[in-house]
Amino acid sequence: QVQLVESGGGLVQAGGSLRLSCAASGRTFPLYTMGWFRQAPGKEREFVAAVSWSGTNTGYADSVKGRFTISRDNAKNTVYLQMNVLEPEDTAVYYCSRRAGQFSFGSSYGNQEEYDTWGQGTQVTVSS
Question: Looking at residue 53, what is its pLDDT?
Fold first, then answer.
């Protein structure tokens, strides 16, 4: 069974940057779309960004467009989320997830119901 382990979270001041990493076990990592989601206190989990199996296609939530960049290194079984110009509103637990179905991307990459494997999450706190 695939395991996802996030790292890189922490406390940062507004305007700062962080890079999250998600390491996946197993040999099938290169076959799947990967996504990042987040959940702030008292709020539902929401989509942040997704990257296709090849890294060619990406998608972002409107709230992070132009500030966050998702990428992947299939040789290292790792997906990244570079977060710049962080805002207090970005404070949340960030989760890495694997989308069900090999090679799929399409227009519904932001639908978390289509993701079947989740990491334990990493806390990101942005102070004002």
Answer: 94
